[in-house]
Amino acid sequence: MKKKALLRAAAVVAMVCGLVWNAMAEEGVSDTEIHIGQWGPQTGPAAAWGSVARGTDAYFKMINAEGGINGRKLIHHMFDDAYNPAKTKAGVKELQEGTGMFAWVSGVGTAPGLAVRDYLMERQIPWIGPSSGSLHWIDPASKYLFPIYPLYYIEAKALVRHAVKDLGLKQVAIAYQNDDYGKNGVQGAKAELAQHGLQVVAEVPVEVKDTDMKPHVMQLRKSDADTVLLWVSPVHAVKIVGTSKAMNFTPQWMSTSTCSDFPLMMHISKGLWEGVIAATFAELPDADHPLLQKYQKDAYGKFAAKDERWGLFYYAGILFAEPLVEAIRRCGQDLTRERVVSELEGLKNFRGIGGEISYGPLDTAKAYETRQGMKEVFLVKCLKDGKAEKLSDWMAIQYP
Amino acid sequence: MDMKRSYYEDVQLFTSGVVVFWFVALLLFLGLLPFLFKNYYVYVANYMAINVIVALGLNLLVGYTGQISLGHAGFFAIGAYGTVILMTLLRCPFLLALLAAALIAALFGFFLGLPALRLEGPYLAIATLGFGLTITQVIGRSEFFGGRQGLHTPELWVGPWHLTTDRDFYYLLIPITVMLTVAARNLIKTRVGRAFIAIREADIAAATMGVNLVFYKTLAFAVSAFYAGVGGGLYAFVLRFIEPEIFTLLMSIMFLAMVIVGGIGSIMGSIVGACLLSWMDLQLRNILSIPYLGDWLETLSQSYFSITGVSNIQYIVFGLILILIMLFEPLGILGIWLRTKRYWKTWPF
C-alpha cells in the first residue's frame, strides 16, 4: 500500500517537473531538433534568387549528416513567397504559429522582409542575415535582427576608391535604379568622390519598368564619363552595356555584388560583361579556400538538385546562415533565443566564406558597428571565360 | 426562380426566415472565428475579407453594369496610400482617413468612367489596364509617396482602441465587410441597381428608357473604386508596410478572376470567389506537403521540369482549377450552388 502511494507521489513529481521543463523549453527547440524558417522566391519576378534558400537547405543537410549541432538536428522550413509580401507574411505566420520556429535565417528581398520585420521583432524571434543590402535593417536597429549583407553604400565607396586611386580615372558617372538600392549607391559614390575633391559627372536614374536604355546611355555619353557605376538590376546593367557598345561609348564599367555572378552575367550578356569590375562579399566559386571547397564537396555535391549551379547566390545561402550556426554551436546544450542573441553579439571577426562578421551589444547610436555584420568587400574583374580576377584584398569600409 | 408579387417583396433584404437564420448564424460564426482557429487563420480571414470587399465592388461594375476593369489594383493602391498618408501627414483618425482615401479612389473611378462612356469590351480593358499601371508608376517615382522604398503604416487607433494583433484588426474589418456587403445588396435592389443592370443588358435600350448613361456608368466606376479604395486602406494595415510593386497587374487580374470564378452578377458569388481564390493563393504553396499527391508531384517535376519547376506546380494547379470551373460551370461557383439547390428542392421525395 505504502509503495503504491510512494509511486503515485513520484509520478506526480515527475509530471510536474515535466510540465515545468516543457514550459521552460524554448519554442522551436527540442532535445533533438532545432526548427529554422526561411522564405525565398522560387517563382515570380525574383525566382533567380531562389537559389539562396536552396543553398541554406543543402548547408543544413550537410550539418545534419555530420551529426547536427550538440546532438540536435537542424530542421529547415523553407517556403516560396513569390516575392509577394502578403504571401511572405502568411507563410511566416503559418510556420511560426503552427510548427514554431526557433529563428529565421536569410529571406530574400527588402519588401517581403519589411512586411514581417515588426512581426518577428515584437515576438523577439532572432532573424539572421536578410538577403538584401538595405539600410532598413539597421535603421532603426533591432535587438533580434542581425543583417550580414554589406551595405550597397560601402560597395560604391570601394569601387570609386579603386577607380580614382588605382586606375587614375576622374570622371565618374552612375546609372542607378530609382529606389533605395540605387540611391545607397549614389550616396556612397558621392561620399567617396568628395574625399578626393571630385564630383559625380552624371547621375542617371533608371526605373524598374524601363526597357529602352538609349536615353540613359545618351546622358552618360554626354557627360564624358570614363567610369560608369551600374547600380541597377542585372538585366538593366546588361542592356546599358550593350546599348553603349552599339553607340561607341566604352567607359570602365563597375557594378555591385548583385551583378557579380560572372558566369551568369557573361551568359545573359553574351560576353559583353568582360572587363567589368564588381564588388563582391563572398569568396570566388573556384577560390583556393578550404571551407568553401568543403561546402562545395559536402553540401552542394551531396544535397543539391542535379541541375543546380554552384554560383554566388547558392553559396550566399550558406554564408548568411554561418553566423547562426556558429552561435547555436557556442550555446551548447542551453539553447534559448536570448542566449543565441548574446552569442551573436559576442561574435568578433568571425570569418566563414565571406568577409569578417562582427556584432556587439545593441547600441542604436552605433547601429552600424553593433548590428551590421559584414563591413568589408573586395573587387573582382570579369575575364573572358566568366572567371574572375581578384583586384583587391578585403577592404573594410566605414558607414557613413 | 422566385416569383415576386410586389415591389416591396423585390426590395426586401431577406427573402425568408430561413435566410435570416443563416445570416445570423454566419454572423455568429464570424464573431467567434478568432476563438475557434489559430491566429494564422485570423490573418487568412483578414486577407479574405479585404478581397471580398474589392470583389464586391468589382462585381458591381463587371457583373451588374457590364463594364470591365483591369485596373483595380490602381484604386486599391490609391486607397492604401491615401489612408496611410492622410494619417501620417494630416494626423487624421483611421476611419476618417479610410473614408477620405476611398472617396479619392472614387473620384479617380469617376474620371476613369468618362472614357468608358465611349469604350467597351477590349478597348475599355486596355484603358483601365493603362490606368492601373500608371498609378504605380506615378507613386513609385514620387518622393512624396515614399518612392520605391515604400511607407510604413502608423500605429492603428480607433478612438480609444489600440489595435495591435490580427484579432483586433479582424473585429474592425469584419463589421466593415458586412456593412459593405449589405450596402452592395441594397444598392442593386434600388433604382440605381436597376439602372446598372439595364445598362448591362443593352445600354441603348436603357438610354431610351430614360437611364442617364453618363451618370450611371461613371457612378458604377466610382462606387466600384470606392470599394477597392476601402479594401486598399485596410490592406495597408494587414501588411503594415506598402510599396508600389505590391499593386501589380497580376493583382488586378486576381480581383477579376475572383468575380468570374465566384459568379458574375451576384453578391454571394463575389464573396465565395474572393474567399476561394485568396485561400488558394495563400495555401497552394503547401500542395507539396500533402501526403502521396505531393510526393507524386515532386517526382513528376523532378523528371520533367527544371529545378524551380516544383514550386511552379502551385500555379499550374491554380490555373487548372480556374479552367475547370469555367469549362463546366460558366456561372462560376454560384452556378454550382444554384443547380444543387434546384436538385434538392423537393428533397426528401
What would you say this structure looks like, in words?
The complex is a heterodimer of chains A (400) and B (349). By secondary structure, chain A is α/β, with parallel strands linked by helices. Chain A has 2 domains: 33-150 and 287-362, Response regulator (Rossmann fold); 152-280 and 380-396, Response regulator (Rossmann fold). Chain A has helices at 2-24, 51-65, 85-98, 110-122, 152-166, 180-195, 214-222, 234-246, 262-269, 290-303, 312-319, 322-331, 337-345, 367-371; strands at residues 33-39, 73-79, 103-105, 127-128, 145-146, 172-177, 202-206, 227-231, 252-255, 277-280, 376-382, 388-390, 395-396. In chain A, strands 6, 7, 8, 9, 10, 11, 12 and 13 form an 8-stranded mixed β-sheet that branches. Chain A has a 5-stranded parallel β-sheet with strand order 2-1-3-4-5, sandwiched between helices. The N and C termini of chain A lie far apart (77 Å). The radius of gyration of chain B is 21 Å and the shape is globular. Chain B has a two-stranded antiparallel ribbon. A two-stranded antiparallel ribbon of chain B has the order 2-3. Chain B has helices spanning 7-11, 17-36, 39-64, 72-89, 94-116, 122-141, 166-188, 191-201, 203-208, 213-239, 249-262, 267-283, 293-304, 309-328, 333-343, and strands at 151-152, 156-158, 161-163, 241-242. Chain B has one domain (36-343): ABC transporter involved in vitamin B12 uptake, BtuC, CATH 1.10.3470. At the A-B interface, helix 3 and helix 4 of A face helix 3, helix 6, helix 10 and helix 14 of B.
